[in-house]
Amino acid sequence: MLPSADDTSNLKEIEMQWAVKAMTHAEIYMNILKSRPAESIQLTPIDDELYKDFREEFPTLNIKVLDEKNDFKSEAAKRKWRNFMNKYEKRVADFSFGTLMRIDSQDDYTEENSMFTYRLQFLCIEIARLREGYNDKFYTKPS
Where in the numbering of this chain does the Polysaccharide biosynthesis domain appear (predicted)? Predict the structure, then answer.
């Protein structure tokens, strides 16, 4: 059922709550990247499986700098991601929740360097970035 005009303020509040939660998640994730070596970070209990399946399904996807339009928003990409993600519906908590992901892996979250994605897309891309060395630059060993 569509909301009535009286409910629109509730939608704005929900949108604001989502934005706050997404930014909090982004801040926490960057703090993790900065505090630990990438190879020691595990995002899910099934990281190995997600990485293997992701790279088999998307072998040429450039994870260093994402192409939002072609690799996520085109009709073909949406269909391919939807089929991929549905396999994990019951295995990855909140797999279809919205989150923010960095477009360029070498930069922090900014308005220009963030895109909206599903949680499972974030997990697959970030697990691959961790394993393929794209997140190594963020960790600074304590002196």
Answer: 14-139
Among 23, 28, 92, 21, CA closest to 54: 92
pTM of structure: 0.86
| 61 within 8 A of 97, measured Cβ to Cβ | no
Using alpha carbons, list the distances in angstroms from residue 18 to 1, 7, 37, 126.
21, 17, 29, 21
Residue 7 lies in a domain: no
Judged against a pLDDT cut of 60, whether residue 7 lies above it is answered with no
Domain residue limits at 21: 12-138
Does position 21 have pLDDT exceeding 50, yes or no?
Answer: yes
The pLDDT of residue 48? 97
Tally of domains in the chain: 1
Instruction: State the residue for tokens 């934005």.
Output: 19
